[in-house]
């Protein structure tokens, strides 16, 4: 028997954007005298992929001003639009940036504290508002889960009805084309029909749907693309909206890069091999100014242009000794590798195929050891010669020797090929050679649903579909072709702010002349 429900606003999925939309909508409904928000979530918890996150972008926040960082909203807006070549919706970007500082205050009002404001890499803007974990004064991976708990508790207190283990299957249309509810299904198969005045879709993209990734983006997951695959991010919401007449917006990948099996498990190895070291492709040729290795979007984009979407960092014994004695050229707060004290230990573990004992691994759990079986392809090697490097990696040996000779001739001087600064030009010499293979990676997809600055979902004629709103990753076309790591924290910031905008406009719709009963 079908369960009948009613709500003023239905939110489809309770990840970061959906949770923000649900909380904001319930706040506004309570202020106008009452109303009901129901958030349907097919998993058993809120926050989704954002539970792995750390921080939000904001500009002109109180925390930035306290830190004497005075980048303005106008400067940020113009900088971002230049980065995207004005292919982003300028009205939406402007609205997002203008409200970003107030969103930090909004979250603090729920009890969330912030560690401070940080850069992501040396040339980025200081926009990343890192969430503080109680009991520590250091940036902590996956700290956004603290904020998600605060938001969820606050939402429950306000009256948000979270319906977990329930998937939305279909949008219900009225006779005038307006959206008037959803059809859902619980894990046990029980159908639900929920009528609503407005519906907000926040289902998080296609990051877990290998078939859609290949169809939409051309990547074969696990071969030439190694993004996070968060269970549940299967494109269900996007397909549902498309079936209902929503316009298909371009889908891109939030491209970064990593070393599969190394980056999140053997962090000293990973951070050392992600320094501005010599980088070559399978042809044995350089293709990138390695000074930019800390800009993970630029590095990932460059890898996408190479054979099999991969590249190889190579250092020699002298470079390793230099890092051991002087520390790394780049230090990231999120991995916080300041010495190479664990290098030998991690290298031994990795090369022997044993489990990693690195703390805070994304994949580690209390009841399952992380290990590498015989069939796992290696992405880190220690070799006794360039000939062996070529043999184990498949790099063209003749070209590799020529590239290393040319690169070494630049050492400490002028890089005639890619203008890499002299301080990063260290000669690659034996007796040992250390090699890591990098692939494009990322956090998931961006875009798919076309919206306007009010987060209203548009049809193929770019007219709004009454009563239907989107937010978060499903609608994140604002990043254009490449995610902007110069504004770190933008993914989560867009999720929260777009969720708030969708809620503001959905509640406003209930009292507007546009409301269709």
Description:
With 517 residues, the chain is an alpha/beta fold. The protein is 31% helix and 21% strand. It contains 14 helices and 17 strands. The chain has helices spanning 16-31, 62-66, 73-83, 90-108, 144-158, 210-217, 236-243, 267-273, 296-303, 317-326, 343-352, 386-393, 397-410, 490-510, and strands at residues 3-12, 37-41, 55-57, 114-118, 128-131, 161-164, 166-173, 179-186, 191-201, 226-227, 248-258, 278-280, 311-316, 380-383, 433-449, 456-458, 464-470. The strands form three sheets. Strands 1, 2, 6, 7, 8, 9, 16 and 17 form an eight-stranded mixed sheet that branches. Strands 10, 11, 12, 13, 14 and 15 form a six-stranded mixed sheet that branches. The two termini are 27 Å apart. The model is unreliable at 358-376 (pLDDT under 50).
Proportion in helices: 25-40%
The total count of helices amounts to 14
What is the strand content?
15-25%
Distance between the termini: 27 Å
Q: State the shape.
A: elongated
Structural class by SSE content: alpha/beta
E-strand count:
17
How would you sum up the major sheet? 8 strands, mixed
Radius of gyration using CA atoms only: 24 Å
Q: Which residue ranges are poorly predicted, with pLDDT under 50 across at least 5 consecutive positions? A: 358-376
Q: Average pLDDT across residues?
A: 92
List the helices and strands and how they pair.
Blueprint: E1 3-12, H1 16-31, E2 37-41, E3 55-57, H2 62-66, H3 73-83, H4 90-108, E4 114-118, E5 128-131, H5 144-158, E6 161-164, E7 166-173, E8 179-186, E9 191-201, H6 210-217, E10 226-227, H7 236-243, E11 248-258, H8 267-273, E12 278-280, H9 296-303, E13 311-316, H10 317-326, H11 343-352, E14 380-383, H12 386-393, H13 397-410, E15 433-449, E16 456-458, E17 464-470, H14 490-510
Parallel strand pairs: 1-2, 1-9, 2-6, 9-17, 10-15
Antiparallel strand pairs: 3-5, 4-5, 7-8, 8-9, 11-15, 12-13, 13-15, 14-15, 16-17
């Amino acid at each position: 028997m079908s369960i009948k429900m009613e709500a003023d606003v239905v939110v489809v999925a309770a990840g970061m954007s959906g949770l923000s939309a649900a909380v904001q909508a319930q706040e506004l409904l309570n202020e106008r005298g009452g109303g009901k928000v129901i958030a349907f979530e097919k998993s058993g918890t809120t926050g989704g992929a954002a539970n792995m996150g750390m921080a939000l972008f904001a500009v002109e926040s109180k925390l930035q001003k306290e830190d004497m960082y005075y980048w303005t909203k106008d400067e940020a807006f113009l900088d971002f639009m230049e980065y995207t070549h004005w292919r982003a919706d300028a009205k939406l970007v402007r609205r997002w940036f203008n409200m970003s500082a107030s969103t930090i205050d909004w979250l603090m009002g729920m009890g969330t504290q912030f560690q401070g404001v940080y850069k992501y890499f040396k040339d980025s803007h200081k926009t990343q508002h890192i969430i503080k974990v109680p009991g520590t004064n250091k940036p902590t991976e996956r700290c956004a889960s603290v904020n998600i708990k605060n938001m969820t508790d606050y939402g429950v207190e306000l009256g948000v009805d979270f319906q977990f283990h329930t998937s939305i299957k279909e949008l219900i249309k009225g006779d005038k084309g307006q959206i008037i509810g959803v059809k859902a299904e619980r894990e046990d198969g029980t159908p639900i029909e929920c009528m609503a005045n407005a519906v907000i879709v926040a289902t998080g993209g296609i990051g877990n749907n290998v078939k859609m990734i290949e169809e939409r983006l051309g990547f074969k997951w696990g071969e030439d693309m190694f993004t996070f695959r968060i269970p549940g991010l299967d494109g269900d919401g996007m397909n549902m909206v498309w079936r209902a007449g929503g316009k298909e917006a371009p889908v891109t990948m939030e491209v970064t890069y990593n070393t599969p099996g190394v980056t999140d498990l053997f962090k000293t190895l990973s951070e050392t091999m992600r320094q501005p070291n010599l980088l070559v492709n399978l042809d044995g040729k350089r293709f990138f100014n390695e000074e930019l290795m800390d800009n993970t979007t630029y590095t990932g984009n460059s890898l996408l242009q190479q054979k099999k979407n991969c590249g190889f960092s190579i250092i020699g014994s002298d470079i390793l000794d230099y890092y051991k004695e002087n520390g790394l050229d780049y230090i990231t707060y999120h991995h916080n590798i300041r010495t190479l004290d664990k290098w030998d230990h991690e290298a031994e573990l990795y090369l022997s195929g044993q489990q990693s004992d690195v703390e805070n691994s994304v994949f580690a759990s209390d009841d399952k050891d992380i290990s590498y079986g015989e069939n796992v392809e290696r992405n880190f090697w220690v070799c006794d010669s360039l000939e062996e490097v070529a043999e184990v990696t498949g790099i063209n040996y003749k070209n590799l020797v020529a590239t290393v000779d040319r690169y070494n001739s630049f050492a400490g001087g002028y890089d005639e090929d890619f203008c890499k600064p002299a301080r990063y030009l260290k000669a690659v010499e034996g007796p040992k050679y250390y090699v890591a293979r990098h692939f494009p990676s990322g956090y998931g997809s961006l875009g798919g649903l076309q919206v306007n600055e009010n987060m209203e979902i548009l049809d193929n004629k770019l007219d709004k579909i009454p009563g239907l709103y989107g937010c978060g990753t499903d609608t994140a076309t604002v990043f254009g072709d490449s995610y902007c790591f110069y504004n770190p924290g933008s993914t989560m910031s867009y999720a929260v702010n777009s969720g708030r905008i969708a809620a503001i406009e959905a509640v406003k719709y209930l009292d507007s002349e546009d409301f269709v009963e």
